[in-house]
Amino acid sequence: MALMNKEQIMEIIPHRDPFLLIDEIEELEIGKRVVAKKYIAPDSFWFKGHFPDYPVTPGVLIVEMLAQAGAVCALSMPENKGKIAFFAGIDKAKFRRQVVPGDTLTLEVEMLKVKGSFGVGSAVASVNGEKACSAEIKFALSK
């Protein structure tokens, strides 16, 4: 059962369609950990060009999905309300399986370090328990 739906997510992060890339939040420990879901619809905008005869979700969009989940975690903290989380770095990104139409991604982000307006999270995207992507994501919060 979802803890937050898209409308509730949009109250926390500024992303909107077509670039709101998470559907729901399943678990949230504010400022510490989040688990989100993204259903990969067959008509997702990126499949028109990536690739028309072999639809695969671009790795960079999977990383963005993880970042948006992490942003919900960080921006749910009362002191961060109304701020924006920006990418500050991506390290150790690995892609282990293709993400195709019909898949549902589980997006897990654990905050490793938060200091002032900067932070680092350990992020993993999986499909049915099979790791699709892992990365260390760094963020900076707007003032």
Concise account of the structure shown:
The protein is α+β, with helices and mostly antiparallel strands. Helices cover about 15% and strands about 40% of the residues.
Describe the structure.
- The protein is an alpha+beta fold and 143 residues long.
- The chain has one domain (6-141): Thiol Ester Dehydrase, Chain A.
- It has helices spanning 6-10, 59-75, and strands at 24-29, 33-39, 85-95, 104-115, 118-127, 130-141.
- A 6-stranded antiparallel beta sheet has the order 1-2-4-5-6-3, with helices on one face.
- A hairpin with a 2-residue loop joins β5 (118-127) and β6.
Overall 3D geometry?
globular
Biggest sheet statistics: 6 strands, antiparallel
CATH architecture tag: Roll
Helicity level, as a percent range?
10-25%
The CATH topology name reads Thiol Ester Dehydrase, Chain A
Structural class computed from helices and strand pairing: alpha+beta
Query: Mind telling me the CATH class?
Result: Alpha Beta
Q: What is the count of helical runs?
A: 2
> Main sheet: which strands, in order across?
1-2-4-5-6-3
Question: How many domains is the backbone divided into?
Answer: 1
Which residues sit in consecutive blocks of at least 5 with pLDDT less than 50? none
Following the backbone from N to C, one meets helices and strands in this order, namely HEEHEEEE
Radius of gyration: 14 Å
Beta content comes to 35-45%
Query: End-to-end span in angstroms?
Result: 34 Å
Report the oligomer: single chain
Give the strand tally: 6
- Could you name the CATH homologous superfamily? Hotdog Thioesterase
- How would you state the average pLDDT, rounded? 97
